[in-house]
Amino acid sequence: MPDFAVNLSMLFTEVPLAERFSLAAEQGFQKVEIQFPYELPAPQIASLLQQNNQQLILLNAPAGNWQTGDRGIACQPDRIEEFRQGITQAISYAKELKCSNINILSGISPESYSLEIIENTFIDNLRFCAEAFAQADIQLLTEAINTQDIPGFFLSSSAQAFDLFRKVDHPNIQLQYDIYHMQIMEGNLINTLQNNLDKIGHIQFADVPGRHEPQTGELNFGNIFQAIDDMGYSGVTSLEYNPSTSTAESLRWIKLIAERE
Question: How far is CA 97 from CA 25, 42, 123, 253, in A?
Answer without folding.
Answer: 17, 7, 27, 30
